[in-house]
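Box S1 | Example of a co-folding query
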Amino acid sequence: MDRDQFKTAAHSAIDDIINYFDSVPERRVLPAVEPGYLRPLIPENPPDEPENWAQIQKDVDTKIKPGLTHWQSPNFMAYFPACVTYPSILGEMYSATFTAPAFNWLCSPACTEMETIVMDWVAKALALPECFRSTSETHGGGVIQNSASDAIATIIVAARERRVRELLLAEGLEEGTPEYEDRKFDVQAKLVAIASDQTHSSGAKGALVAGTRFRSVSTRLEDNMEMTAPRLREVLEKCDKDGLTPYHLTLTLGTTNTCAVDRFAEIKAVLQEKPAWQRIWVHIDAAYAGASLVADEWQYIAQNFAEGVDSFNTNMHKWLLVNFDASVLFVRNRLDLTSALDITPTYLRNPYSDMGNVIDYRNWSISLGRRFRALKIWFVIRSYGLNGMKAHIRKTIGFGDLFAGLVRGRSDLFEIVTKPGFGLTVFRVKNPQAVSNGASGSSDRVAKDDVADSLTKKISELVNTRGEIFITSTAIDGVCVIRVISGNALAEEKYI
Ligand code: PLP
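Box S1 (continued) | Returned holo structure for pyridoxal-5'-phosphate
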């Protein structure tokens, strides 16, 4: 494709993209295809001769679009939103144009420096504690990761390395010696990462990647599925009793099932109870709900964990108008990351890195090469302004409140199961028998009920089979529930 052909093709693709966004509200949100639908539509072998763009684009229309789940549809109310906006798409275009796997500063200084600056902007926009900025006295800073799961796995590996180092130095061993290496794996075998049973699966996966044990703290409906201090203490004490060393704790701001917020203040107090517990790396996973911190009225949550937290992540690609991937990870002390992940063979050395006064983001993540993702974040923040981003968050939280109100208004049919929050409503269908007996609807506590469970599941499946609206069902503390959330850029009140 030469420059003129590119120009024609790009204009045509942009027109198609705009038409797609215009038409997406009218499309079925879930595709009407069966597994394996695509293979018969695509030639078995790649073409030997070049094909023209018009043909390729036509196939996007006839073969790809019919198999898409439309996450941008305002009728997409499942999982969490995955936003995309025009400025973010422009960021992707420039990023592709400048493609540079900028692992070291030297590999594309603008790429590295923009990431540092934009991460400081985001830290300020979310009112995160000062320690997470690149300019902080604690040597903090932010880095863009592919996904929250990558961010969490990276952090857990860094936490493991930090704890092992502390334990071995306390034993008088010197890093880099054979004794240190041998003992390292003895110590590692006793390490435990902790999270709640509501923590996203990336918490357990992170422990798996780090090659350590994992234990979970149970949650209950009566605690709104939040991790509480007494239940965490139980797990910590059991670890002590079993001769294990907790080294990492994932707390969640906005759990995947119900958007619960773990009880940061009381958990912080528990961690102060024993010197060994004070050494646990505390991470806040705010993959979805962290976006709400852009709005002033939610920023008190960040103040609650200001002290004692080692790292924080949120996915701007969920609710904050930047498309996948834009998972931002902040650390209190970047040396914790770099001392775990810096492996520098000669071919990666250069005078700037050797002087130590530049950031080489390869030492902040598992991957070496990285995309220029800061551009799309920069474009979105500038195009919307913080006020535009706040307005999006407030508007979609408002849709959640509206929906929860509608559910409450039909208390003959439905009941809310956990506290609605961050735009998410979690509810179930009532057992009609219990309603007519007057046994349902009066108490604050949702009781287990097999009939309610099976009706809830059936109705959720029926909605999704129709394909006009997409919702998720799940189970919490043994109760089957439906989750409804509407937070993408095209969300509107009329769809609620
Ligand atoms: N953490 C939470 C709370 C989530 O809800 C999710 C996904 O929904 C994740 C982590 C994983 O996100 P990612 O797909 O970016 O790995």
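The mean pLDDT is 95. The two ends are 45 Å apart (CA to CA).
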